[in-house]
Amino acid sequence: MPVELVLAGLTKVFRGFRSAVVAVDHVDLEVEKGELVTLLGPSGCGKTTTLRLIGGFEVPTEGEIYLRGQRITHLPPQRRPTATVFQSYALFPHMTVFENVAFGLKVRRFPRAEIRRQVQEVLNLVGLTGLENRLPAKLSGGQQQRVALARVLVIKPQVLLFDEPLSNLDAKLRVETREHIRRIQKEVGITSLYVTHDQAEAMAISDRIVVMNQGRIQQVGFPQDVYLRPANPFVADFIGRANFLKARVVAQNATETEVELASGLRLRLPQRFSFASGEEVQMVVRPEAVDFCAPEEGHLQGQVVLAQLTGPSAHYRVALSSGEQVEVEVLGALEKGLLAPGTPVGLRLHLKSLHLLRA
Amino acid sequence: MANGDRLLRENGKGAAISRPLPVFFRSRTGQLLHDPVLLAIVLISFGLVGLFVVYPLARVFLVSLFPRGAFDPRYFLHLFEGRPYLVRPLLHSLTVATLVAVLGTVLGFLFAYAITRTDIPGKRVFRWAATLPLISPPFLLALSTLLLLGENGLITRWLFSRFGIRWSVYGLPGLVLTETLAYFPLAFFTLEGVLASIDPAQEESAMDLGASKLRTFLHVTLPLATPGLAAAFLLLFIRSLEDFGNPIVLQGRYPVLTVQAYLAITGMYNLPLGATLAILLLVPTVVAFLVLQLWVGRRSYITVTGRPTSAGLHTTEPLLKWPLFAALLLFSGIFFLFYGMIFYGAFTKLWGVNHAFTLENFHYVFSTGATYLLNTLQLAGIATPIGGLLGILLAYLVTRKSFPGRRLLDLLAMLNFAVPGLIVGMGYVFAFNTPPLLLTGTAIIIVLVFIFQRMPVAIRDGVAMLQQIDPAIDDAAADLGAGFFRTFRRVTLPLVAPALLAGMAYMFSACITSISAVIMVVLARWQLVTVALLHEVDNADLSQAAAYGVVIILIVLGAIFLMDFVIRKVLEGWKHAR
Ligand SMILES: Nc1ncnc2c1ncn2[C@@H]1O[C@H](COP(=O)(O)OP(=O)(O)OP(=O)(O)O)[C@@H](O)[C@H]1O
Ligand SMILES: [Mg+2]
Predict the structure, then answer these.
(1) Residue B244 has pLDDT above 50, yes or no
(2) Which residue ranges does chain A devote to CATH 3.40.50.300?
(3) What's the mean pLDDT in B102-129?
(4) What pLDDT, in 10s, does the model give residues A129-173?
(5) Which fold would CATH assign to domain B73-302+323-346?
(6) Does A43 sit in the ligand 1 pocket, CB within 6 Å?
(7) Residue B170 and residue B546: Cα distance in Å, rounded?
(8) What ipTM does the predicted assembly reach?
């Protein structure tokens, strides 16, 4: 697929009276045609700002934006072939659903009959037929969201930008709507950038995920990659949860890596990592990639210090003999019963899902 | 950066791309260069503000300091030599302003405290009384003062002369009395807001801790209200300094700056002297304004809790309540008496001599005065929509768009906020009396003065209106391809329409009642009704002046009620559509 959108060294500094915030810090990114890429990161990491730079609502301090090879860095929003679904939807409150959706076509001076036809078509696509004459205030949150989507789809932009489009919906509707958005996005085949701080949402709908922190890209990858092979401790901890154990690479070949933990225990991981032998590393252990067993059967030994039932699973914190602490997530806790704090336990690690990071 | 270039070359489209802009042009300028409409609007705005706000003001300074084209600050030297014709008006203006500010703030606090902190009856009537001077031309009170205390005044004739009291209201006493009554409502409404937003819990907790009511008042309520009191004081101080209508009627042998500046120019044709007096007026006004903005603005430790708290702490203490009630009754009585005099006078044959009922004065106003009335309505009617739209447009520009010089434009457009109206008008006379900008004597100059003197208020209102609207709505319109004008006309304007109409109603009344700014630019051919009123006072035709006053008050009330009606219709229409 050809590259549609390129961000090159994109930087935005907000200068205040005495302070300066680097909201976006040298972001490089390529988005392919038809791809849905999410920008994922904690609050204030610069997701919205990045999106606003692409939409033309902010002008970068440095760097360039290219769309299909054209530099659009300094074009005002009305001259860019991008379209945004705003977090607040930003529907025109004094216009009906029809007028809202028709707005972009009227600007483009389409003939009336054509406007009518295209608006009907897109309302049909998003499932809003019959609500043409309602004002936005008389619509449910989910319906408003669809109007916002229809309003941008109808002008057939080259890139769609979504800024946390689901944050105003309740949990159940959120899942429904994200599937709806993903289905339509695929159907239309439109290149999309999607901002969220909800990792489950990102995992569910993205072709690729861009993890950001403090204005910088931490990792770009397929959803399973950022989960299974996080590029750094921030990503490991942000996408799902992670325990970090100190380790040292002892030896490795084409298919295996042997590491030694603080306790002296040696593990053979069925993967090759790009570390030199003898190098100090951090081992990423997902809480759900650990099982309890009898102390003498485990890779690690320790004592339960905290036990909580969190619905279908149980959450434990275990103090290892090395002094490190490990979070453990156990499914089906109801049948097995909750372990009391103080219980000595053994921990079996799922060797396949262990990951190594530079220390 | 390099990465992007590489990619583009690989995509085979790199050649089509223009070179990046030089660093200097990056950021906001870059976008502006790609948006010719916005660029044009920014340039036009700077042009308008420069020509009609900054340039006239600059001319005042030029005329004062370069009287014959060469630097010659002789009047400032005279000031420092202590020449009385400069020093006295300055001292007088400052004296009057200080007294008015002190008395008005005290009176305003009395009203505000009684209304927010006690359960006295008749609060609505008291508020009405205090609203009267805000909607009528402030100098109408000078007329009332003459009707009561002038040489032919009711009190003078039937009270003073009977007891052989010889007392003239002209000069300091008349100025202080009239201006205090005219401007105290500003203090009242400011302080009412402040007192209403002080969390009564703070006062209650002081009392819980055993403090007496007096102690609580002195050590909790008063300190919390201090920024409000300071703001009220400064506001009144500024208003009194700028006042022209009251002193021109009442100053007598106590000359103040505004009137002397006006007389220097229109009576003596001494432009440098007039300009110098104007600058003497401008300095304390601007200083007071800056203090108000910077110091008081920062120190306001009012605890706004977001819930209406004024209902919280109502004293029922009879010893406090009834004296306050009596005071409010007295002052409201004075107000109704003063305004009642105008209505009474308007239907009187010859004030002080023959008080027989007559409609002649109104006949006079609607025949001889008809042109003045029509002029005023016409010019205010032209200026209001232009000023209102320009105000909201500039507000939109400085709050919703980013471009280089945005803050400067904001600052310059708001400049006249701190400049007394008389100086605005004087600047126009200086600036537009030679070709190619020969506007003196035309109606255009009056309309321009109306527009640009009210501009800061219009902008401030506009900013407040825009704050009610999600900025993403503007972004969305641009995003869908709408340019500046379409976004403004199809999206922003309909959303602010009701508030804008209300703002225009007030702008219209302000134009109708304005005197200090237009007094310099009106000429025989374009006489305005306020100026006509002053002429009648000057000729001692108080009854005819009163008839003008009545008509002005009715027009203003009519405008406000009409707008209110229209706005309600608009809002209803919206509700129906929903
Ligand atoms: N207009 C602005 N002026 C000054 N600082 C800003 C502006 N907009 C954003 N910032 C700052 O830039 C940083 C990034 O903000 P941004 O809105 O892009 O974060 P975000 O990732 O979208 O966060 P959230 O998940 O909370 O929406 C923040 O520190 C924010 O305070
Ligand atoms: Mg955001």
Answers:
(1) yes
(2) 3-236
(3) 90
(4) 999 999 998 899 899 999 999 999 999 999 999 999 998 888 888
(5) MetI-like fold (1.10.3720)
(6) yes
(7) 19
(8) 0.85
Third-level CATH fold of A3-236: Rossmann fold (3.40.50)
Pairing of strands A325-331, A313-320: antiparallel
Which helix (H) or strand (E) segment is A346 a member of?
A: strand A344-349
Partner B, chain A 124-183, Cβ-Cβ below 8 Å: 135, 137-138, 151-152, 155
Q: Is the model's pLDDT at B294 over the cut of 50?
A: yes
B8-22 mean pLDDT: 36
Q: Tell if the CB–CB gap between B3 and A8 is shorter than 8 Å.
A: yes
Q: Do A311 and A330 form a contact (C-beta atoms < 8 A)?
A: no
Alpha carbons A213 and A193: distance in angstroms, whole number = 17
Q: How far apart are CA B231 and CA B243, in angstroms?
A: 18
Backbone angles phi, psi at B251, to 5 degrees: -65, -30
Backbone angles phi and psi of B348, in degrees to 5: -115, 140
Residue A244's nearest CA partner among A275, A280, A283, A291 is A283
Tell me where in chain A the CATH 2.40.50.100 domain(s) lie: 241-358
Residue A199 Cβ inside 6 Å of ligand 1? The answer reads no
- Distance between CA atoms of residues A161 and A165, nearest Å: 10
Counting DSSP H helices and E strands in chain B, the numbers are 28, 2
Rg (CA), chain B: 27
Measured distance CA(B61)–CA(B276) in Å, rounded:
8
Q: Say if residues A183 and A151 touch (Cβ distance below 8 Å).
A: no
CA distance A304 to A285: 17
Any A CB within 8 A of B578 CB: yes
pLDDT confidence bin for B48, thresholds 50/70/90 = very high
Domain boundaries, chain B: 33-57+349-578, 73-302+323-346
Task: Quote the pLDDT of residue B30.
Answer: 63
> What six digits make up the tokens of B553?
């008050």
Measured CA to CA in angstroms, residue B316 lies from A264, B200, B225, B319 at distances of 81, 15, 21, 9
What is the rounded CA–CA span in Å between residue B63 and residue B276?
Answer: 8
Q: Which of A11, A14, A167 maximizes ligand 1 atoms within 8 Å of its Cβ, making it the mutation to test the pocket?
A: A14
The candidate with the shortest Cα–Cα distance to B152, out of B358, B348, B334, is B348
A241-358 fold = OB fold (Dihydrolipoamide Acetyltransferase, E2P) (2.40.50)
Tell which residue, B91, B87, B109, has the closest CA to residue B99: B91
Other residues' Cβ atoms within 10 Å of the Cβ of residue B122: 14
Instruction: Quick: pLDDT tens for B512-558.
Output: 988 888 888 887 677 899 999 988 988 888 999 999 999 999 998 88
Query: What are residue B313's phi and psi, to 5 degrees?
Result: -125, 95
How far is the C-alpha of B110 from the C-alpha of B325, rounded, in Å?
Answer: 10
Q: Interior CA angle at B404 toward B400 and B405, to 5°?
A: 90
The CA distance from A229 to A123, in Å, is: 41
CA distance B433 to chain A (A): 42
CA–CA dist B569, B575 (Å, integer): 10
Phi-psi category of B164—alpha, beta or left, where left has phi over 0 and alpha has psi -120 to 50? left
The pLDDT tens digits for B440-484 are 778 899 999 999 998 888 898 888 888 888 889 999 999 999 988
H/E stretch holding A333? helix A333-336
Q: Given the DSSP bridges, would you call strands A36-40 and A191-196 parallel, antiparallel or unpaired?
A: parallel
pLDDT at B575: 54
Write out the H or E segment, with its range, that includes residue B532. Answer: helix B529-538
Q: Which atom of ligand 1 is nearest to the CA of A12?
A: 12
- Indicate the CATH number of B33-57+349-578 among 1.10.3720.10, 1.10.3810.10, 1.10.645.10, 3.50.50.60: 1.10.3720.10
Q: Would you state the structure tokens that stand for residue A300, as one six-digit string?
A: 């690690």
